[in-house]
Amino acid sequence: MRMIDLWAGKPACALLSLWRLLEGLFKKPDSDPGPVRKILFIKLAEQGATVLAWPAIKRAVEMVGRRNVYFLVFSENREIVDILDLMPKENVLAVTSGNFIGFAPELLKVLGRIRRLRIDACIDYEFFSRISAILTFLSGARRRVGLHRFNSEGPYRGDLFTHRLQFNPYLHAAETFYLMIEALEAEPDQKPMLKKARPSLEFAPPLVPAEQETRRVQKMLEEAAGQPVSRPIIVLNPNASDMLPLRKWPRERFVELGGLILEHYPEAYLVITGTKAERPAASEVAAEIGSARAINLAGRTSLRDLLTLFSLADVLVTNDSGPSHFAALTGIHNIALFGPETPVFFGPRGGRARLISAGLACSPCVSVLNQRKSPCRDNVCMRQITTAMVFQAIREILSPDSKQLI
Fold it and tell me: Cis omega before residue 343 (within 30°)?
């Protein structure tokens, strides 16, 4: 997808920008695009970032009503949109990202449906992705909101938006998302947008799993452990997206941390999580911890199951990845480890988050502006987060004196 975005996206953005320019020369500008009645968000990837968009989507619902908000997403990422439940399920437009041969016709079919819906406003929530900018332009919406590079060195996306916001790395992603929906009510000739104060945001309330969901996950835990499972439960997420392996805390640190937890809290249970593809690596972590109290659930849980697990557990230790944002939807204490990326922009919001970073001078080395491509081949920033630092945070949470146990 990145290669397609790079090699096909650049000329496509250039051609569509030229089309827009020529259209403007021969067509009188539309001074009154009419009221905003239907809003489409485009956020194809990154379920964690979708959690951060909750305040903005909620604002859109307030503006046009639940039935008039739509969301375009990759099929494998739609589950979080359904869980957030801010729009009807039929308003979630999903496309499969498996291969270009299947992806292209499916995308054209969805684009046809978008145009038939007569969307008034389309908001591109991808950070400098060209395909999302192209889809925003082709949506037919008269108001098109997205990030524009202006004079910066950011990736080229042409000139396809009517409301162009300058990317600000000092704003949190959730604030950026919110300001993009607020831009719909501002004059589009502002350069750059948006000339408003930073928003004060309310984040999603904790999700309360149904009783049958709780029973199912509890049963899953006990079947995996071969015995009744009680608290404290500490969840370890030792993996991160394969797109950014620099974000991984060393596997041996997770193993060492698991041993320390069981040494000091012999009644505790450890639950290792991950995707189906990550199950073999999670099995190795559990085996190296070497205890019947280390349970491997990687690849066995849906996202809904994972959220239910978080609601049953006390602490999550995770690399900077989606689970740190999902945890913010529950009451779990969430210890997120940051290195090559900054929590200033992408840290979890809401919930009970505790962020640990070594704070090296070279961090962050991946960002929106470099499309998360770093020259680093040695993530010292993650290796300088010691097991002792993380274990101390767990002890503070589980301490009887701290009154933090859920």
Answer: no
Q: What is the token pair recorded at 170? A: 């000092």
Taking Cα atoms as reference points, which of 205, 305, 221, 303 lies closest to residue 268? Answer: 221
Do 246 and 379 touch, CB atoms closer than 8 A? Answer: yes
Distance CA 363, CA 183 (A): 31
pLDDT digits (tens, 9 = 90+) for 310-343: 999 999 999 999 999 999 999 999 999 999 999 9
The Cα–Cα gap between 9 and 150 comes to 18
> CA-to-CA distance for 224 and 167, rounded, in angstroms?
46
State the Cα–Cα distance between residues 368 and 313, nearest whole angstrom.
Answer: 33
Assess contact for 41 and 126: CB atoms under 8 A: no
> Two tokens at 24?
């403007």
Residue 180 amino acid letter: M
Report how far apart, in Å, the C-alpha atoms of 358 and of each of 249, 343, 363 are: 12, 12, 9
Q: Which residues of 125-158 are buried (b: 16+ CB within 10 A; e: fewer)?
A: bbbbbbbbbbbbbbbbbbbbbbbbeeeeebbebb
> What's the burial of 26, exposed, middle or buried (CB within 10 Å: 0-12/13-18/19+)?
exposed
The type of residue at 82 is: D
- 303 with 326: CB under 8 angstroms? yes
Q: Give pTM, 2 decimals.
A: 0.92
In angstroms, rounded to a whole number, what is the distance separating the alpha carbons of residues 274 and 326?
13
Give, for 159, the enclosing helix (H) or strand (E): none
pLDDT tens track for 178-205: 999 999 999 998 989 999 999 999 998 8
Phi, psi torsion values for 361, nearest 5 degrees: -65, -25
Q: What is the mean pLDDT of residues 35-56?
A: 95
In the sheet with 294-296, reading across from the earlier edge strand, the strands are 294-296, 269-272, 233-237, 315-319, 333-338, 352-357
